[in-house]
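Case study: AMMECR1 domain-containing protein.
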Amino acid sequence: MPALPSVNLTESEKRQLLALARSTLVDAFGSDPAVNPSPTSYHKLPNEAVIELKLGCFVTLTLNGELKGCMGCIEGEQTLANSIPDLATSSAFYDRRFSPLLEPQLGRVSIEISLLSPLTPLSVSSQVQLEEYLARDHYGLVLKEDGLRAVFLPQVWEHFPGPKAFIDALKVKGGWPENYWSDKIEVELFKVIHFSEKSDL
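Here is what the predicted structure looks like once written out:
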């Protein structure tokens, strides 16, 4: 069973990581932080031990409660000091599903950070077997086959009525037909810790 990431962040450290993402977006517009203040009201530099961690990470932006951008890396190849600014920038300006973030929107955008556990392979013989496994716990899911790959964070479960709809949507996202399954598909599971500027840390 996948474990939570081997990190136990304090509320202060969560705010520091959010502030790092926020300051990246402020700097991208060359804005004065006093004009676009961070909702965390926390401007200290991140604790060095925290930002040097290498964890899979996603940065999600919402605007007026609606998704505005989400980009991530599922394996921790970079430190958070590098990945959080890169992903915040990519989510704001390079998520092809959305128009780039505009400076007047910056003050209304909320940032969420998700830190991933190590990926855990799961051997299944069919989609039905995977559905039965996911019915027990709502993990994050990665599907891979012949160069195709798609990932859903655990938070995405709230948009689907059950495992079949969740898996089918992920297949479509990855470029497979909705009704496709093959014994060559590789399955990986993970969990996350996630926190946002709008939540109680």
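For the exam, be able to explain this: The longest strand covers residues 66-73.
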